[in-house]
Amino acid sequence: MNDDEISRLRSLLGSALSSIDDSQEKANAVLSDLLRAILQLRRIRNNCFPEGYFADTAWDILLDLYEARTENRLLCTTSLAVDSKTPLATVLRYLKKLEDDGFIIRYRDSVDRRRTMVELTDQGEKVMGRVFSKTVFSGLGELAAQDSAAERVAKIALTK
């Protein structure tokens, strides 16, 4: 290989890597928008019906944590309780179960030791990714198939 060929290959590789980075950013944006819409729909639903009809605390926690992970944000136990409109004691009970099962980790905030931060583990993120890829993408598959670029972005976002 001569220097021109090596230079050309480096350029092609750089373009390919840049394209992958752009696709991942778009995929994360699509996933974040989707999670935000699901959470908003759940909150609207909960506000329209009398209290007690829809108690799915573990799922609400997992959705909030999955959205936070895709947006590189951290959440504390208090914000999970406020977001889900669930008593803190109930949230703590579910967090214990999710932690025991390996889906989340909890740790003290390094800045404010009074706060306990909560994150999905890699296992938790994989399971949430599977849930979305098996449910949401299968329902959107026909629509996404109309645009191969949209399909690639959706597959990246939902199978991460």
Describe the protein's topology.
Blueprint: H1 3-48, H2 57-70, E1 75-76, H3 77-84, H4 88-100, E2 104-108, E3 116-120, H5 122-145, H6 148-159
Antiparallel strand pairs: 1-3, 2-3
Helix pairs in contact: 1-2, 1-6, 2-3, 3-4, 5-6
What does this protein look like?
The chain has helices spanning 3-48, 57-70, 77-84, 88-100, 122-145, 148-159, and strands at residues 75-76, 104-108, 116-120. The chain has a three-stranded antiparallel sheet. 19% of the residues are buried. Helix content is 73%, strand content 8%. It has 160 residues and is mainly alpha-helical. It has a single domain (21-159), classed as Arc Repressor Mutant, subunit A.
Q: What do the pLDDT scores average to?
A: 78
* CATH fold title: Arc Repressor Mutant, subunit A
End-to-end Cα distance, whole Å, is 37 Å
Largest sheet: 3 strands, antiparallel
Strand content: 5-15%
What would CATH call the homologous superfamily? Winged helix-like DNA-binding domain superfamily/Winged helix DNA-binding domain
Count of strand segments: 3
Low-confidence stretches: none
The CATH C-level name is: Mainly Alpha
What radius of gyration results from the CA coordinates?
20 Å
CATH architecture assignment name: Orthogonal Bundle
Number of structurally distinct domains: 1
**What sequence of helices (H) and strands (E) makes up the elements?**
HHEHHEEHH
Oligomer: single chain
Helix content: over 70%
Structural class: mainly alpha
Q: What is the overall shape?
A: elongated
